[in-house]
């Protein structure tokens, strides 16, 4: 493979070469946070099965006079944010101080912790390398059973608090509901859970899952070709070859993505698209298969026995904390009907706090929760008011 071709694998939508991407595309998350004028800390946690996960903490806002020694003062409000599939902690800072949830929360007085689930560039293993297929032998089941509990415990240990707030986006919600099912003792360590675009029931994706996993057998074809996981370089190569950022409304790739997540050209920030595409994180094939099993079976089930194995539902009656579900009116991936099904189930056990649209924008889609052009104004600032209300209602120091 020539050097030029390697270089242009990171072309996004066929327009930007590496030299033309803004510096934010290459910076580490701690560097991004520091450059934005916020204090930042790195924390590492090791799960019981040997994965080492790096967390990123923003302990105060830009204009805060707090010093490091004051950050754990009584009354400090801690919140843990968990990313979605192909994402990482970067998703909640990359849009900048005026738009990204993490910065806005820090400026509002929160002690913000950003999780990185196993598989991201901020994860390693005590014994396995990422070239070992065994490293990738996990789905969001392990995220919920091992990763989230380890991160929650780290936040509690460092802050000295007895409870924190949890926010999950997409796969971050899937992992969280699995944690509640598999590790119900963690209900006692949380104030409330805010689920953004919750991915629990996905009957609407049944036809696509069947086509990809059964008819085309894409995952096993990739494994047979030596691809142990879904890597960013593969996605970037496809994008650079097939897509055209200059004409998003007629571009086949953009329209294919919008078929999956919902069309919203108005909130598509063309300057940011190449940056967050360059920062796409790896994913395990098992996670895609697990979502496929959930979609095909119509049940929020474990992956036990594989794609065609027995259906074993997760026990959502183990959820004991107040849960708020926020959906996008135009989200075609985690669509409203499936979220309302989850809402009915949570309501029947008395833990549903609220279910409603994330904002009033009628085209708000799955990616808009983190990457909308106006995400700060139309979604994140109102979200912080909601989080404040939940803290005031359910937390007593």
UniProtKB/TrEMBL annotation:
Q: Which gene encodes it?
A: HaOG200576
Instruction: Give the protein family.
Output: Belongs to the AB hydrolase superfamily. Lipase family.
Q: Which UniProt keywords apply?
A: Glycoprotein, Hydrolase, Lipid degradation, Lipid metabolism, Signal
What GO terms are given for molecular function?
Answer: hydrolase activity, acting on ester bonds
Organism the protein comes from? Helicoverpa armigera
Q: Where is the signal peptide?
A: 1-19
Q: Does Hydrolase show up as a keyword for this record?
A: yes
InterPro entries tied to this protein: AB_hydrolase_fold, AB_hydrolase_lipase, Lipase_euk
> What is the taxonomic lineage of the source species?
Eukaryota, Metazoa, Ecdysozoa, Arthropoda, Hexapoda
Coiled coil (residue ranges):
none
One of its Pfam families is Abhydro_lipase
Q: Which residues form the active site?
A: 170 (nucleophile), 331 (charge relay system), 366 (charge relay system)
Partial AB-hydrolase lipase domain span: 30-95
For biological process, the GO terms are: lipid catabolic process
- Protein name, as recorded: Lipase
Iron-sulfur found in the keyword field: no
